[in-house]
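Appendix C reproduces, verbatim, an entry submitted by the partner laboratory led by Prof. M.T., so that reviewers can inspect both the input and the predicted structure.
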Amino acid sequence: MKTLDLEEIRKQLDGIDRELVALFETRMELCREVAEYKIGTGKPVYDGEREQQKIDAVTGMVEGEFLKQAVKELFTQIMTISRNYQYRQMAESGFQAEHTFRPVKSLALSGVRVAYQGVEGAYSHGAALKYFGQEASLYHVATWDDAMKEVEEGRADYAVLPIENSSAGAVTDNYDLLMKYHNYIVAETFLTVNHALLGLPDARTEDIRTVFSHPQALMQCSEFLNANRQWKQISVENTAVAAKKVLEEGDATQAAVASEIAGELYGLKVLSSSINHNKNNTTRFIILSKEAVYREEAEKISLSFELPHKSGSLYNLLSNFIYNGVNMFMIESRPIPGRNWEYRFFVDIEGNLSQASIQNALKGISEEGRNMRILGNY
């Protein structure tokens, strides 16, 4: 008897599901008509006040906290799908997310001026060499902020900045610089971090008493360094500065944690090679230009947007990627200065600005979020 009752219930559920699908199709057809109206009037797709009124109305139709929450979730998703359908209709009519980027076949790499932070032998210098080679004019500045300023004010064609490390995570200060300056990411390069212990030509490992390096490098080599408890670890601006300091001070009891390239540049001896405990440690560097361009074959987009401190706001906005089949590589958040508990999000997605799916997703984010900026397509 129970089996027959269950089968009957399943049949009833199947019938209800068919009705729901038919009603959903009717609703989406009405959404298409709404999109046509908005195309004709220039009104935005997203109307937060109207959606909140709808949520309040439908949740008031049921009793009990569980059903109220379930209905709220159901209709939130229905309206999200409806918005994305309308964005698609508008995109087909030529209404797309606005941007000033233009496609180019390739980037100029030779005869250009490239700014990087630190001194010769720093990892940023190595990243610049790796991407631009010997035909570019590379020069160093004191800070990452200075590198961005060189580009924005036209003294450099490009800047090279670290943005993410595979073991230490995001370089958060540089995310803030992406907001401070109006430069654009046009490329990226990856550099394997391979630290060595460097000393003067006549130094011996057993004589070392002080080790200099960037704090992140000291952390990345902590297992090796902490095994020598007699060594005092001192932080400096970057790894190449540490190597230069050891050379200039000429003290055989001092050593630096830096790249072997830095050792060659400053005439230091490798006392111990590959001392970082994570042998797969890699830093991602971004290449920035004042020109809003992207290579025709570019396949990654970086963007930023802001959201209010409200439950579900990020979840709902990211649906613009889901319903357009856009793959998200990374998301990072930073507090917005002067606005407590509000955040700016940085997202890397797969795609090219010429693609319709990307245009649809960006249109949605520009309407539903605040202050969206496309940081680069590369």
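Residues 81 and 204 are 67 Å apart (CA to CA). Additional entries are available on request from the coordinating office.
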